[in-house]
């Protein structure tokens, strides 16, 4: 395992390259080497390389080839008239702590690659000579891009096509320009996780949107902040797609603009759209198609536990044949709840139940006191079952009383997550609610901690109780169930 050093200012290609004082000067010199599993190529901070870097060799799963940086100061910069970093057929590669700017093509291009990790990479003004995706992967497997920044590029921020196993985690994409540009475009891919990203198309000159997820299989889009564009998330065709806990806003400019849209580029099956805050736009969730008479199947579309406000159209639009339900959503007064075509109403294929209208959504979102009477929805499949929980408190030392809501629940898949508690969505950092007699914090894994508030307790024997509703799923949109946690407080024990 060899470490090679490259310094554009002080290095020389006549050096051996294996020490900081004997660094190479160019990336082309590195390309002339036969890199082996476990080797590293470190670029000096402050260096600028005006050339494309081709990665030709593969690491192993246990010993990937790493491309990174060393020294102090600004990250090393790769400029190129072509791609910044380019690779075909290489596997087990890690790229980290670099900047790629003003490339004529993609900042990073990987074709037929596998097991790549890109992290802490900054991309600026890529794609200057063509509308290429600034980070592009095609026909590949197991690609992770995390904690990276992409700004003011021409073309899509990410272009992902035919990749099995893609993770986009905690990245920032700002202003992807061009007539066909989205912040993220994922086509014909599977096993997708888009999580924790900040995606902002507010100042982009594109008429398109933020996330385009086309013909996806087994995809999760969660905990992202999505701003601007003609649409927030377009998932026009796919199977087993979960879109949850995102903040989606600023999607307008066209009478068709939507927060989340599906149904117009192929069959759409098993969608779970839950826990999103969709606001400041035109339509909320649109199940539609651009051309009449399409024969696409749109089945088992569940839209629940979302918050809708400041929309010029309705929270839900269904104007093409579809089956599913719209339930337990919160809608600000002044926003129309739904627009469903008469033919679909007559077919009784898309149910509406248990939604509520509130005068001020911001108050609801800011409140930690909401609890209790959220509408429940029966499990669509007996593969997942929620069972009532009890917490009995006989004595109190001031510490939290702990338990797990999921311990007595079950799933055929063996995986469970707490998605809703009370009237609120359980986010990645959990949720805290103030009840009638105490404060409870819950996490997605089902753990809870309930702390009594003595100022709210009666001063006589007997008992008091309060009940919280909760909802669970197993990561499959059609598998969900709901039940309750009841807290019994025995005052005689506390007062003795």
Automatic annotation (TrEMBL):
Keywords: Lyase, Plasmid, Repeat. Residues 43-182, 193-358 form the Carbohydrate-binding/sugar hydrolysis domain. It comes from Rhizobium etli. Pfam families: Beta_helix. InterPro entries: Beta_helix, Carb-bd_sugar_hydrolysis-dom, PbH1, Pectin_lyas_fold, Pectin_lyase_fold/virulence. One of its GO terms (molecular function) is lyase activity. The lineage of its organism: Bacteria, Pseudomonadati, Pseudomonadota, Alphaproteobacteria, Hyphomicrobiales. It comes from the Bacteria. This is Pectin lyase fold/virulence factor domain-containing protein.
